[in-house]
């Protein structure tokens, strides 16, 4: 063999022994502007890019100038279209995404209305499905073709809220016990505020009355006994139905003086749907506030997820603030949403750096739009529950509009023994991460349940205001395996019951006379001065057995003039929530009455939250007139 042949053979051997490194998939970008036929920019349009290779779809919304941007799309062929209420969906366009380049593609939409719009929408749906018919004939039903119909009669919106069926009145004689889990989430109020400030009436199922009430602080007495919280009650005339009464149950958590070290894993959604200014940019600003309150003994890690999940900041001491800020600053949005994979990695990091007797917590920040990998609610909930048992809790922060998944995020936080907040502004971020930091991160009581027994000789019927998705069966109260809500350091929980007094002629469902049995009230019940007994169960952090606390409530009815200002303000918020929900139980409530009651009970209002509430009610009055 010649010398040249030996060199060639040697080269082959080297290539076999040392193969070329496998390169990661290269990505590119896609941007453009969506305009109407008239040339006017179309803001808030949903732009979809579908990849030919695997039919995976990526979505984003146009900004106020009609521009959209997809970052980090895998190079290849894509089909792109846009949709928005009042416009015919833009016909699909094909584009090639090139590695390490940003390709420009502008889209044009036609404004149409009426029946003609429906016909044209069907025709464009056929184009999206690749099923254009000759001579403009309409294709078969788009449902059979596997293409979901765009929202024709409503603004394009994939926000999800769990259906709420309001609690109804229950007869005390037949159903003497009312059992529920506490709720210290406040996301609904911030979300309602976002709708109103955008001059829109919120969807009824976005309004959870208990979360609106619990958004505000109330000056209930501080705990003085051996329990980590105190219980306060008050009963008065119902302002929206003078023939009824209303009872308040208030819980005040003790503030932790010696704060334990924290093992925090920030789990951040950086998918394409998080690009808008009210999502990832706001997350970054909010996290800067939290970083300011961390100490050297705290540990912080950052996990992100998009098309895949990754660790961008390993566990880092809390006093290395600049290093943490730099990791946050470098985050960019793009790609689909592998939320399940992100949660798995976050729990793995949290468990590897577990601090005994510390606060081990994942802080998930997202719009809730999980669409790749483990995405079903049941799978995610199961994952969260399994890791909760190992002492790692989950706090969820919701951001953004358009594809916000509120019900899913609330469920994850509940099963993760954490809190759920909606951050609609940097001021709300300050409230959560600065003003209420201790309550946000440090749990003082777990699985807190309330069971109220009503005296049928005083109370004919009752209705729990809100807490529809927190109700428990009577057996759950004594079952220590049943999960319930957590109470944080300094947190307050407020619950309201609307009551129908004994002897009222008002008919209640279930009051019909039974054929085979008769239920009677004990004589002692008539002689008692109590209208109800409030029982609470809770576990200490790390404990497995619950502790019982009971409180008897005297039947002393205060007039509206004699009620405490906190009681009256809570009633004002409750009425506002019922009006926003168009509740059948709102009675004589009106926005004017809410406004008057809120103004009278504004009080000290150090942070200005009650003043802001008054402004929201005034705004709602203006929107109600327009409606």
List the helices and strands and how they pair.
Elements: H1 3-17, E1 27-36, E2 46-51, E3 57-61, E4 67-74, E5 76-83, E6 87-88, E7 93-97, E8 102-104, E9 107-111, H2 114-128, E10 170-171, E11 177-181, H3 187-197, H4 209-213, E12 229-237, E13 245-253, E14 262-269, H5 280-292, E15 299-305, E16 309-317, H6 321-329, H7 339-352, E17 359-366, H8 377-388, E18 393-398, H9 406-415, E19 420-422, H10 426-435, H11 437-441, E20 443-454, E21 459-464, E22 485-488, E23 492-501, H12 523-527, E24 530-539, E25 547-554, H13 565-581, H14 591-600, H15 609-626
Parallel strand pairs: 1-8, 1-9, 14-15, 14-17, 17-18, 18-19
Antiparallel strand pairs: 1-4, 2-3, 2-5, 5-7, 6-9, 10-21, 11-20, 12-13, 13-23, 15-16, 20-22, 20-24, 21-23, 24-25
Helix pairs in contact: 5-6, 5-10, 7-8, 8-9, 13-14, 14-15
Describe the strand arrangement of the main beta sheet, using strand numbers: 16-15-14-17-18-19
Number of strands: 25
* Oligomeric state of this protein: single chain
Overall tally of domains: 3
The CATH C-level class name of the largest domain: Mainly Beta
Helix proportion range: 25-40%
Give the rounded overall mean pLDDT.
Answer: 81
Keywords:
alpha+beta, Immunoglobulin-like, Rossmann fold, 3 domains, six-stranded mixed beta sheet, 15 helices, globular
Explain the overall architecture:
This protein folds into three domains: 27-136, Carboxypeptidase-like, regulatory domain (Immunoglobulin-like, Sandwich); 170-256 and 444-504 and 527-626, Immunoglobulin-like (Sandwich); 262-441, Rossmann fold (3-Layer(aba) Sandwich). It is built from 15 helices and 25 strands. It has a six-stranded mixed β-sheet, sandwiched between helices. α5 packs antiparallel against α6 and α5 runs parallel beside α10 (426-435). With 627 residues, it is an alpha+beta fold. The chain starts with a helix and ends with a helix. The chain has helices at residues 3-17, 114-128, 187-197, 209-213, 280-292, 321-329, 339-352, 377-388, 406-415, 426-435, 437-441, 523-527, 565-581, 591-600, 609-626, and strands at residues 27-36, 46-51, 57-61, 67-74, 76-83, 87-88, 93-97, 102-104, 107-111, 170-171, 177-181, 229-237, 245-253, 262-269, 299-305, 309-317, 359-366, 393-398, 420-422, 443-454, 459-464, 485-488, 492-501, 530-539, 547-554.
């Amino acid at each position: 063999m010649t010398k040249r042949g030996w060199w060639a053979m040697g080269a082959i051997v080297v290539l076999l022994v040392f193969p070329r490194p496998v390169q990661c998939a290269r990505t590119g970008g896609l941007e453009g502007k969506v305009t109407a036929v008239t040339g006017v920019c179309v803001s808030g349009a949903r732009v979809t890019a579908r990849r030919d290779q695997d039919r995976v779809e990526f979505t984003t919304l146009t900004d106020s100038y009609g521009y959209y941007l997809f970052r980090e799309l895998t190079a290849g062929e894509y089909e792109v279209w846009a949709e928005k209420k009042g416009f015919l969906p833009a016909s699909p366009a094909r584009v090639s995404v090139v590695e390490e380049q940003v390709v420009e593609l502008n889209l044009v939409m036609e404004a149409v209305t009426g029946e003609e719009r429906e016909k044209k929408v069907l025709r464009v749906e056929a184009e999206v499905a690749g099923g254009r018919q000759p001579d403009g004939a309409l294709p078969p039903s788009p449902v059979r073709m596997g293409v979901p119909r765009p929202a024709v009669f409503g603004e394009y919106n994939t926000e999800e809220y769990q259906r709420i069926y309001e609690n109804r009145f229950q007869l005390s004689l037949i159903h003497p016990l009312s059992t529920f889990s506490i709720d210290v989430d406040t996301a609904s109020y911030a979300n309602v505020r976002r709708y109103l400030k955008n001059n829109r009436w919120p969807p009824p199922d976005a309004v959870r009355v208990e979360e609106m009430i619990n958004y505000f602080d109330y000056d209930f007495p501080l705990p003085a006994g051996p329990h980590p919280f105190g219980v306060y009650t008050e009963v008065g005339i119902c302002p929206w139905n003078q023939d009824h009464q209303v009872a308040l149950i208030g819980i005040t958590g003790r503030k932790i003086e010696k704060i334990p070290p924290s093992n925090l894993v920030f789990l951040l959604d950086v998918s394409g749907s998080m690009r808008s200014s009210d999502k990832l940019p706001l997350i970054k600003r909010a996290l800067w506030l939290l970083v300011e309150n961390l100490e050297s003994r705290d540990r912080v890690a950052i996990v992100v997820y998009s098309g895949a999940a990754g660790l961008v900041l390993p566990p880092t001491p809390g006093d290395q603030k600049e290093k943490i800020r730099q990791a946050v600053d470098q985050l960019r949005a793009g790609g689909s949403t592998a939320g399940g994979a992100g949660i798995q990695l976050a729990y793995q990091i949290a468990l590897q750096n577990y601090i005994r007797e510390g606060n081990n917590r994942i802080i998930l920040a997202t719009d809730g739009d999980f669409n790749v990998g483990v995405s079903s609610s049941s799978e995610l909930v199961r994952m969260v529950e399994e890791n909760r048992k190992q002492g790692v809790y989950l706090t969820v922060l919701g951001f953004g509009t358009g594809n916000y998944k509120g019900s899913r995020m609330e469920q994850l936080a509940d099963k993760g023994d954490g809190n759920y907040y909606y951050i609609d502004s940097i001021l709300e971020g300050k409230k959560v991460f600065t003003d209420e930091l201790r309550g946000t991160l440090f749990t003082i009581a777990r699985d807190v349940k309330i069971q109220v027994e009503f005296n049928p000789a005083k109370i004919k019927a009752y209705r729990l205001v809100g807490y529809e998705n927190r109700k428990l069966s009577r057996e759950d109260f004594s079952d220590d395996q049943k999960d319930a809500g957590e109470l944080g350091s300094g947190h307050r929980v407020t619950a309201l019951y609307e009551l129908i007094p004994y002897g009222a002629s008002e008919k209640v469902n279930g009051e019909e006379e039974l054929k085979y049995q008769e239920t009677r009230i004990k004589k002692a019940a008539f002689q008692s001065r109590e209208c109800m007994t409030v029982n609470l169960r809770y576990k200490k952090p790390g404990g497995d057995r619950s502790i019982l606390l009971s409180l008897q409530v005297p039947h002393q009815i205060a007039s509206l003039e004699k009620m405490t200002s906190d009681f009256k303000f809570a009633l004002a918020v409750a009425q506002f929530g019922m009006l926003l929900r168009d509740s059948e139980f709102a009675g004589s409530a009106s926005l004017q009455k809410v406004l008057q009651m809120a103004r009278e009970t504004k009080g000290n209002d150090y942070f200005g939250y009650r003043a802001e509430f008054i402004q929201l009610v005034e705004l709602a009055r203006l929107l109600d007139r327009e409606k």
